[in-house]
Design a protein that fits this description.
Elements (H helix, E strand, L loop, with lengths): L5 H48 L9 H32 L4 H18 L1 H16 L7 E4 L2 E8 L3 E5 L5 E5 L6 E3 L5 E9 L5 H16 L8 E12 L4 E9 L4 H19 L18
Antiparallel strand pairs: 1-2, 1-5, 2-3, 3-4, 6-8, 7-8
Length: about 290
């Protein structure tokens, strides 16, 4: 109708595409394969390093293991971002796009965005300091930004923690001002054991120490206990004498050890006739004289 030879047009298009596939197309495939290879290589090296620092105890993660997990996670994410950005620019160049204005524009836009993205820059900088100073690792139990839980992931911008109810909290690193790490190097269980005023404190001390020995000999949790001790009488309450007990444990084991101790101390107090009190109140009534 317009004098277009569709067969010739189709042949020229196919020929042009074929030529590009032979030249540029092959290079695009090479770039993608190279990017995947770099990422897989970094991942493999990281996993081998993590395996080298692992010990034979699969039930808990040591300080070195948690540190290695954290750094491996950050390096893996950073490598993926860096590699795919580079591969993306190289593919654009093969498609005929002039990437020089893109790079120049990226610098100008980046400068403009920088003034409005100070929080993001602060997040990255604070994340770098967290990793450098080893403030916490994947697997630690922490309290940060009014949230408590198990650290599941750390990257340069955010930290993800999961609380006891299973809720995952994503916290920008720039908002982290104070870190309470409850599992750094060692953990502690501080337990106040109350006895009635009619019970003997010395006898209670004796029973608590024997219970501590029983706990240290426990086949399941005994190996996690580093130190057991009675700090003394902590408080003279309205209805109880409170004795404070301190148990030092391996990281993350303080809660299980504390639950086991409370279970045992209740049984041993019952056997020894030591009363664990409950609030008492004496009521006096006044009758008027007639």
């Amino acid at each position: 109708m317009l004098g277009i030879n569709w067969n010739e047009l189709l042949d020229s298009v196919v020929l042009a595409v074929g030529r590009w596939l032979i030249t540029g197309g092959i290079r695009v495939i090479v770039y993608i394969v190279a990017g995947i290879t770099v990422i897989k290589t970094v991942q493999k090296i990281g996993k081998s390093i993590v395996r080298k620092v692992e010990d034979e105890d699969d039930s808990t993660r040591s300080e070195r293991e948690r540190r290695a997990d954290t750094l491996f996670q950050v390096v893996q994410v950073s490598t993926r971002i860096f590699v795919w950005v580079i591969v993306g620019f190289m593919i654009l160049r093969e498609l005929g796009a002039n990437i020089t204005p893109l790079l120049t524009g990226a610098g100008v836009i980046g400068l403009a965005i920088g003034f409005g993205a100070q929080n993001i820059v602060r997040d990255f900088f604070n994340g770098f300091l967290i990793l450098l100073e080893n403030q916490y690792r994947v697997g630690d139990v922490v309290r940060i930004a009014d949230k408590s839980g198990l650290v599941e992931s750390i990257n340069l911008r955010t930290t993800a923690i999961r609380d006891l109810e299973g809720v995952v909290h994503i916290i920008p690193n720039g908002e982290i001002k104070t870190v309470d790490n409850m599992t750094f190097s060692e953990s502690r269980a501080v337990i106040d054991v109350g006895i009635s005023y009619n019970s003997s404190v010395d006898k209670a001390f004796e029973v608590i120490n024997k219970t501590g020995d029983e706990l240290k000999a426990d086949s399941e949790l005994g190996s996690y206990i580093r130190e057991f001790g009675i700090l003394g009488v902590e408080n003279l309450g309205e209805s109880s004498v409170d004795i404070r007990v301190l148990i030092k444990t391996d990281p993350l084991q303080q809660w299980a050890v504390a639950r086991k101790f409370k279970y045992l101390i209740k049984k041993r107090f019952d056997e020894a006739g030591i009363e664990i009190p409950f609030p008492h109140r004496t009521i006096y009534t006044r009758t008027e004289m007639k």
